[in-house]
Amino acid sequence: MEKFYQVLAWASLFIYWLSIAAVTMRIVFKRRVVGVSLAWLLIIYIIPIGGIMAYLLLGELNLGRKRAERARDMFDPFAEWFQRLNDCPGHQPHLMSEHARPLNDLCENRLGIPALSGNSLSLQDSPQAILRSLIDDIHQAKSSIHMEFYIWHPGGLADEIATALIMAAKRGVEIRILLDSAGSMRFFRSHWPRLMRHAGIQLVEALAVSPLRVFLRRMDLRQHRKIVVIDSRIGFTGSMNLVDPAYFKTNAGVGQWIDVMVRMTGPSVTVLNTIQAWDWEVETGERYLPRLPECHVPSVSDDADTVQVIPSGPGMPDEIIHQVLLLSIYQAKESVVITTPYFVPSENLLHAMKAAAQRGVAVDLVIPDKNDSLMVEWASRSFFSELLNAGVRIHRFHGGLLHTKSVVIDRNHCLIGTVNLDMRSLWLNFEVTLAVDNAEFTQQLNWVQQEYIKQSTRVRPEEWEKRPIINKLVEQFFYMFSPLL
Known about the structure:
Blueprint: H1 2-29, H2 34-46, H3 48-58, H4 65-83, H5 100-110, E1 116-117, E2 120-124, H6 127-140, E3 144-149, H7 157-170, E4 174-180, H8 185-188, H9 192-198, E5 202-206, E6 227-230, E7 234-238, E8 257-258, E9 261-265, H10 268-284, E10 306-312, H11 320-331, E11 335-339, H12 347-358, E12 362-368, H13 374-381, H14 384-390, E13 393-397, E14 401-402, E15 406-409, E16 413-417, H15 423-428, E17 431-437, H16 439-454, E18 456-458, H17 461-464, H18 469-480
Helix pairs in contact: 1-2, 1-3, 2-3, 4-10, 5-11, 6-7, 11-12, 13-18
């Protein structure tokens, strides 16, 4: 019997070694960013069995067999639809500014989506104004409402939107709503889904969380886009989930969430609608390709005014928004202002920000003073010294949890959307960003950013270096895992 146990022990040790070797080889041959690979190897070697399990569950981008097959089948018809946008009169590459043209070329070559002119944009920077605007537009809807959000949290004005949607459905408006399963868990447990479906609203739970599917699909892959399209004519996107801040995470100790949304009319609304249609088909298998937008021919004398819609995530080209962000920063000549709730940058993004500051560009980073993610908070701090030494100005916002995701370059063009400056948003989740080349809109966004800075405390390099040694150790610990956050 003793010999049997010895054989069993050696066999177990061999299987354990073989598992470690197999997973290590798989990580190495995936050829991802070195920091990501090293972080996973560190986890596997420190927590051997748990690390292997974690990698199998969360280490690779696995959308699931059915969704992956749908995405492959969808690619050609959607690519053809986007290709036809090049014939839209609103696509005039020769009229684009020197800032917009490189972004258009990148997105056309990689995504097949061109920038379009002839849009009208308004920036809404108050949660109450955003929700009231949505309610008013829903009440005016005549034919269709298409929505998708990461979080829908019941309470306050969010309930008024649900009521407005039910009323719209009862008067014959066709409504499709796609909500992330994890983010909107509280909503799906409420009475609203039953009332909506009873009224005829198509409500779908995206990327359902289930213990039975943990080995079939990556569980932390989330639908993070925020899109509303009403009558194929009015579009909304930006950072705000469908929540009333007065009723959302009120006990988290970070204050109310601060967000912005863009309300848009024009041809780019149809592009947003098509992205929502893509997500709907990936989840349900049902195809609803919108009609091509109606565009007008811009005058040669018109000022540069284009919108580039940039989706990212499974099924889209790898790192497309990451590339757009890097290109925008490297193009900056005078200033870069970035607002983000979660700041865990890639090495390339970190170097781009430092290089911009070191060549004389004024670089400002605005982040919340208090964060709802403890790990992200400590990981973010680990980058402060490097950025401060390069001349980047860091501002910690005190007016609540600053959730706005925006970048303003040289005060004349900007990026705004759903993307956080962390690995999860840039490489993993379903996201969408607008690259806007419109001086008036960009000035509005710049004014909002400056108001954030006025409500912030600037981090001074000499004061930052005096922080306790225990803080530095904790920062370095979480820095090692920053590629996975």
